[in-house]
Hints:
The protein is an alpha+beta fold. The protein contains four helices and nine strands; from the N terminus they run H-E-H-E-E-E-E-E-E-H-E-E-H.
Amino acid sequence: MAAEYGPDWWVPIYRRAFPTLMSAVAVEHDGWAQRGGIDRLLTLSCGRTYTVDEKIRTQDWPDVLLERWSDEARQSPGWVQKPLACDFIAYAHAPAATCVLLPVPALQRAWRQHGRSWIGLYGQRRAENPGYTSVSVPVPRGVLMQAIVEAMFVA
């Protein structure tokens, strides 16, 4: 994450999302929490805690890039399909200073239900990184949010 999008950038967003926020502690050291997708621990005044994996896009796009493969050649699952320890993915669009809080269990269930059709409908985007290529699917926000709501209904 770029320095300009550090804790001073994130905390006002978390305060808008969680009015009783008491602290927002960054998880900066490698360990089980970082590997489980936890970038920040939020604590509310009632004592409730939430763990968040932070994603940021430096342009405003009408979609959410769901990371299918973090390393395509090794078939390493991306965050939309690997087991995560966090409660939410905080998916921000930096220029607008907006954020979509995606509840991980419902998000991943929506992916299991719709991922294949989304790949066919919206295609995939590859990002070349040093030593690996990640692959993501750009799903329109409205489509994704509707699928998450539907994934919350369990029959």
